[in-house]
Amino acid sequence: MIMEKEIKKKKLTDEELIKKFQNGDVWAFEEIVRRYRDRLTNFVYRYVHDRREAEDLVQDTFLKLYQNKHAYKEIAKFSTWIYTIAANLAKTLLRKRKTRKLMFFSRLGPEDKDLDLPSKDRTTQEILESEHGEKLIQQAISKLPEHFRIAIILRDVQELSYEETSSIIGKPIGTVKSRINRARLRLQKELENM
Amino acid sequence: MKNCYRFKTLISNYIDKKISFRDRRFFESHRKNCESCSALFASIFKTKVKMHQMPQITVGDEFMTSLRKRILDHKNARILSSQNKNFSLNRIPAFAYAFSSVLVLVIVGFLMMKTSGSVAPQSQQLPVATQQQIDDARQFQQQFDATPGYLAPEQMANTQVDSGLGNEDDPARNFENNLNKVDYQKK
């Protein structure tokens, strides 16, 4: 009986699940959390570059969803809506972090500390193929301006469509396309400089 | 140089396969002829692939436990705050604040006007000119009453009734007198 219920729940779309949750089904909420916790944590981690903060932030996102479940109207995709909440929270965190940085002057993230940079005479392709490739990309992403960073993460890491990215960022598709192109060029430059 | 700039603006469209036939032809021919642009495209494409292949972070079961705890804490905090708030200024609706502030303003305004003398108290005397007019009218009335041959309205009524009653033989006159009496009483 429980197994049947689980299978049924897995077949439901996100929009059906949130509707169930709006009607008081707490199990639907747990299914939503199960579906989105990793995706959102990845997205936020790439954006804020701190795992603990990313997890806290995703929990905040789900808490917000729990508190404001009726705020979701079926005019947008649920995934876009929840990504927007997470993105807004992440932006707020980065703003706070900037203020903190101003106060404490310099602070290295936990991921920055134990990284040996490769020698500069290697090509970008060699760097990418090295064991540090992923860390270097992550570092290069962190160096991008915020509006480029969020666009490239949503498009290239999360592989969302231009339409979804545009709804989450709240900018027209043309702007998003241009930002992604410029972000890719800028990222390449950052990687070359490493 | 101009072609290189155009090539750079088209890289994303080409990678995402959202490029027109004409642009695609230009892009591919330029890529064959320009070594630096070709290298740039190759590295951007590789980075894009690598970005998608970056290891995915997975959260453990403690994530769910912690989230449940936070939700529960939030619920408890709400219950507690609603219990503690038997009386709170937050509960008073905004219109009540607005109404009371308007009331206070009106009272203060009235008091200020009263002290400055703009509002006339009810017991104040009439202006001199008006008082003069009233006195003149009274004097004229007294003079008129004192004139010989003039009967006051009450005296006139009595006279008419008396004369009417004394002439019982003339029913038409009697009727007219009675009518006058009734009219006067009505007045």
pLDDT under 50 segments of chain B (min length 5)?
Answer: 161-166
Determine the number of helices of chain A (DSSP H or I, runs of at least 4 residues): 11
What kind of oligomer do you see?
A: heterodimer
How much helix, percentage-wise, in residues of chain B?
A: over 70%
What's the end-to-end separation of chain B, in Å?
A: 112 Å
Tell me the β content of chain A.
Answer: under 5%
**So what's the overall shape of chain B?**
elongated
Biggest interface: chains and residue counts? Answer: A-B, 38 and 31 residues
Q: Mean pLDDT of chain B, nearest integer?
A: 79
Radius of gyration of chain A: 19 Å
- The ordered string of helix (H) and strand (E) elements of chain B is HHHHHHHH
The run of helices and strands of chain A is HHHHHHHHHHH
Total helical elements of chain B: 8
What's the arrangement of secondary structure elements?
The complex is a heterodimer of chains A (194) and B (187).
Chain A: H1 2-11, H2 14-22, H3 26-48, H4 51-67, H5 78-104, H6 110-113, H7 124-129, H8 133-143, H9 146-157, H10 162-169, H11 173-193
Chain B: H1 2-15, H2 21-33, H3 35-53, H4 61-84, H5 94-116, H6 128-146, H7 153-166, H8 171-186
Concise summary:
The complex is a heterodimer of chains A (194) and B (187). Chain A has 194 residues and is mainly α.
Describe the structure.
The complex is a heterodimer of chains A (194) and B (187). Chain A has 194 residues and is mainly α. Chain A contains eleven helices and no strands. Chain A has helices spanning 2-11, 14-22, 26-48, 51-67, 78-104, 110-113, 124-129, 133-143, 146-157, 162-169, 173-193. The longest helix of chain A is centred in the middle third of the chain and has 27 residues, at 78-104. Chain A is elongated and about 55 Å long. The termini of chain A are far apart. Residues 112-120 of chain A have low confidence and may be disordered. Chain B has 187 residues and is mostly helical. Among the domains of chain B are: 2-53, no CATH class; 149-182, no CATH class. Chain B is 76% helix and 0% strand. Chain B has helices at residues 2-15, 21-33, 35-53, 61-84, 94-116, 128-146, 153-166, 171-186. The longest helix of chain B has 24 residues, at 61-84. The radius of gyration of chain B is 53 Å and the shape is elongated. The termini of chain B are far apart. Residues 161-166 of chain B have low confidence and may be disordered.
